[in-house]
Design brief:
The chain is mainly α. It is built from 14 helices and 2 strands. Helices cover 73% and strands 2% of the residues.
Length: 331
């Protein structure tokens, strides 16, 4: 390689530059944080759709059935019944609006508040399994629609510096359809990956908490590593109006060719997000100070999403230049 060629080599994507761009972008378009902030306020102050009665009925039925069959799993369920019912009472069906991988970031999804500074919100019990399934299906579709709009706005501001409303409206139906298909793909992959673990996890935990927990942790670590190439799978839908499959392949290729830098970028986002979420969750759910956590989380989470779009943009440009120099075709 001669001197001219070495000087013309493209510069790899810079994670610090991408992070700075993300925070500057959201600071200049502060209205973007309303999506995450309003969603958290809905989970905090809005109605509580509870499944505790349905869950209690199912738990009683399944425990009785397992006792009749003489399995050891029934004893495990009975010993942990209080813990399971406590979790069921805190669960709010509105969290289903937080769809994955395309959705609105939320702090309250992990907290599942039962009270707020104004008291207890209105609570409603799902009366039947059919109504429950209908609500879940409706909330998932609604969450994906809101998430699609949110991702479209972030992508346009990242690439064009502003929101092109006419263009957004025209591509929204296609982007929404591809978002639904991508979510179905992720659901199938995660269910397929977790099914073997779910079959043996109760027996591992009963056999020994330490040994079973280690095996579960190792399995989860391997699973995360296998799913890591899909981290950028949604972005092609909003940047290039790709189909679900093309967007998934484009994202996986980008991760593969930029693996060390991309891994560091995602790890930094994960660690900082988790650390700040702990900070944002410090105020009790009955304190008005928790609003600061809601706003802070909305700003940081939205900034990280904008930074991810910026990193994806820079990585694609770098790959395109490298491929052109090597005479290879770009997707």
């Amino acid at each position: 390689m001669n001197k001219a060629e070495s000087q013309s080599l493209p510069v790899p994507p810079n994670l610090v530059k991408a992070l700075r761009f993300g925070f500057d972008t959201v600071a200049n378009h502060i209205g973007l944080i309303l999506y995450a902030a309003l969603f958290d306020l809905l989970l905090w102050f809005g109605p509580h759709i509870s499944l505790s009665k349905l869950f209690s009925t199912y738990l009683n039925w399944s425990t009785q059935l397992l006792v009749e069959q003489g399995t050891g799993v029934s004893e495990f369920i009975q010993n942990n019944r209080d813990m399971v019912m406590t979790a069921a009472e805190r669960f709010n069906l509105l969290v289903v609006l937080r769809t994955f991988p395309i959705g609105i970031p939320s702090l309250m999804v992990s907290r599942l508040p039962l009270v707020n500074p104004m008291g207890s919100p209105v609570s409603w019990q799902a009366p039947s399994i059919w109504i429950l399934l209908s609500l879940i299906f409706s909330f998932i579709l609604l969450g994906l629609m809101i998430g699609t709009i949110f991702f479209l706005m972030i992508s346009q501001i990242t690439f064009d510096g502003k929101i092109k409303w006419q263009n957004s409206i025209s591509i929204l139906p296609r982007s929404y359809l591809q978002s639904v298909l991508l979510s179905i793909f992720w659901l199938v992959v995660i269910l397929g990956a977790c099914l073997p673990l779910s079959c043996v996890a109760p027996f591992l935990l009963m056999g020994g908490a330490g040994f079973g927990s280690i095996l579960v942790f190792l399995y989860a670590t391997i699973l995360i590593w296998l799913l890591f190439p899909l981290a950028f799978s949604p972005f092609g839908i909003f940047i290039h109006q790709d189909t679900m499959w093309v967007s998934l392949m484009r994202g996986a290729r980008l991760v593969r060719f930029t693996l060390p830098g991309t891994a560091l970028f995602l790890v930094i986002i994960f660690l900082v997000s988790q650390s700040l979420d702990w900070l944002w969750s410090t105020p009790k759910e009955t304190s008005w100070m928790a609003i600061i956590g809601v706003i802070g989380h909305a700003f940081v989470a939205t900034s990280f999403l904008a930074a991810s779009f910026a990193y994806y943009r820079d990585a694609e440009r770098w790959l395109e230049q490298r491929f052109k120099q090597d005479g290879r075709q770009v997707i």
